[in-house]
Design a protein that fits this description.
The complex is a heterodimer of chains A (115) and B (776). Chain A has three helices and no strands. Chain A is mainly alpha-helical and 115 residues long. Chain B has a two-stranded antiparallel sheet with strand order 1-4. In chain B, helix 19 runs antiparallel to helix 20, helix 19 crosses helix 23 and helix 20 packs across helix 23. The chains are: A mainly alpha (115), B mainly alpha (776). At the A-B interface, helix 1, helix 2 and helix 3 of A face helix 27, helix 28, helix 29, helix 30 and helix 31 of B.
Amino acid sequence: MEPLMAVTIGILFAAAIYMMLRRSIVKLVVGLILLSNAANLLIFATAGMLRGAPPLVPQGLSAPANMVADPLPQALVLTAIVIAFGVLSFAVVLVRRAWEIVRADDLDKMKDTDT
Amino acid sequence: MQYAVLGGFCVAAMAPLLYRWFGARTAGVMALLPAAIAAWLMAQWPTIAGGGTLWREWAWVPGLDITLTFMIDGLAWLFAMLITVIGTLVLIYSGEYLHGHRDLPRFLVVITAFMMSMLGLVLADNLVALFVFWELTSITSYLLIGFNHTDPVARKSAQQGLFVTVGGGLALLAGFVMLALAGESWSLAELTERGEQLKAHALYAPLLVCVLLGAFTKSAQFPFHFWLPNAMAAPTPVSAYLHSATMVKAGIYLLARLHPALGGTEAWVVTLSLVGALTMASGAFLAIQHTNIKKLLAYSTVMALGTLTMLLGIGTETALAAFVVFLLGHSLYKGALFMVAGILDHETGTKEVTAMGGLRHAMPRTALVTVVAALSLAGLPPLVGFIGKESMLESLLAAEHHRAVILPMAFFAAFLTLAVAAIVAIRPFFGGWRETPRTPHEPPGGMLAGPALLAALSLLFGLAPGLLDSLVGVTVAGIGAPQAEVHLALWHGLNLPLVLSLASLVLGALVFRRWDRLRSWLARLEPLMARGPEAGYEASMRGLTRVAEWQTRFLQNGYIRNYLVMTLLVLLGLVGHALLMRQTPNLTFALDLYLHEALVAGLMVAGAVAACVMRSRLAAVAAVGVMGYSIALTFVLFSAPDLAITQLLVETLTVILLVLVLFRLPRFATLSTPIERLRDLVVAGLSGGLITLLMLAVLSGDRLPRISDYMVANSQPLGHGHNIVNVILVDFRALDTLGEMFVLALAAIGVYAMLRFHAEEYEARNASRIWRGDNG
């Protein structure tokens, strides 16, 4: 599965960067979402992908009996998902404020600090 | 000794405070500092004269082998003595010269700091310490030259001096590093003993070039000589100090210091003697074109610096002895003459020698001092300048390399210098009386004391040169001729140098008589002069500004996507290069995968691509949602239930948020041209490809042991939790989670603030502010 994921993640990154290079701010935000998802997936997949072995300790045992998926990248990605959401909501509201004031969805029209 | 120098910096910093206590007498009080150091140095003379070396060790950065060790041998003693004695006189003089000047405290701060830097420079034994003091002199002299900072000319000259000397300083730093590598030591004393090793080393040529660049820029050697005359924009006490005993002699000091380590090779001899001779001749030639007394003296300083460099290049025993005598003589008479120039400027209100005349009636004592100092400059008996010039000519006659070039240049410089001396001494003081902007009087005692003392010393050492024998002896011993027996004398009998001196006297007198006609004739060379090295400097400064403008326009253009493209391309270049150099990616993989997993991956890609191409916002948001849910599915399939839950929740919230907020915004417009889109596509595609390759490289490499094994083993026993991810978040890495909560809280506050503060309010407030006439 990992080689396929490598290609998938590459495409996600490419899509994210393409969108971040647009002049439209909304597209920039979409690019941001794609980028954070791609990065999360990259961390998750690079640690190795195991089927049916969640990092849980069965009741009555002090440690899992068999090999389980690496819990640390999962914990990191979990944090990242939540933070990305925080950043995204801030960015989205910011875009809306900008739209209300500048009435433009074009980054090139926002070069002045006075508008 | 270190305490004296470092304490001197503290005294410098205290000058404004002292000024509050002592008022106009502050300069005199501060002069006690160099005077005390000079007295201490004098007390050490018996040790030095006996060939001994004083050491004062002080580890500064022991880990890096940097020490603040001071070493006083003959050479260092001579320089330190000149710096402190002339420094004392200059401080007293400047107290009168700048009497009542509003910025006198600032002047005293800087000139004292400069004095201490210079002292540190000549005493330091460690290359790094020497370099630090070297740069300190550049910076403080910049502040001194630009002292009259309201004058644009002074600012420009100060900047020019700084650029030239600091530019050379950079070369010097590189030279020092190579020197330390080649000699395996940072200590000058050790390096001077390893001359053979250094000269045989492969780095010898590049390090010589760098060190010489540093010394030549500092000591205003051709073609870097132009900054020195321009530095005359400084107040006269500064000129007297910087250009007689200190700043410009720093390069000379360095060359002399390194002479035993680097000198004697053909490269050294040829470069130094030719550059020195060229500087000497051009300095003397340029001097006689000027009528401003400070410029006349400045160019004659260039001449003297060239002479000193040339003598070091020749490097024989006689040449080194001539070097020391010339150095001493020049410091004495040049200090005196610059101070006299300041007196003339102060009393008459002009610097033009052609505008003055007959001043001997108004200022007889000044006239006497000037004549004595000028005789020394001219190299006439019985002054010390004569001994210096005679021994210089004697060593030139014995020079081995390029004698045919150097000797005529020296003769040329000698008679022109004689003319300069005559102009400086005779034009203002003799001949008919001329009206000047101010009515001249004899200057106050504090101003005349300095030049009088220096002129008296010139005369004393000229009449009794035996006094200098041991000083010249130990100095010459320190710079490369340990067995030298020095016996200076005024009268050597009728020999070739004396004949040359007599001939130069005749020619010099002729030049002086015809000076006015000669100047108008030389004025025709003006267009040629305009193409000199200074024009090159100006052109390179203009080029620098243009390049800076261009690269700012190109790089700092304000478009976020251009920054992004630039960053990505650099990243691609560096990471891609490193990746492809280090390993060939293994592209053969056993694809172990099920159909439904491939379908989920396909869905993800489809969602991402659709989000890019959709024209409607809502459709784009939906496509993002599809991708997000596919990712959640991936988490489900590959053993990450917590991630899957979080991703589902967050994705749902994201879609709702996007729909709510962006719903009212218009459809996407096409803002970019097809070419731009193609460029972005290429950059994005390359970046994505690089990520894929990186991940494949990681996957094909050896797996390191997992650091989470500890967490897996201890989650239940220590954390009492069965969900390991959960235990990591709230226990093992609880601080991370705390930080995350802070970020979320901040984002929430920001969102709340922005939603509460409506655009209408903003406009209303803006309008009322404009109405009140308050635009801030």
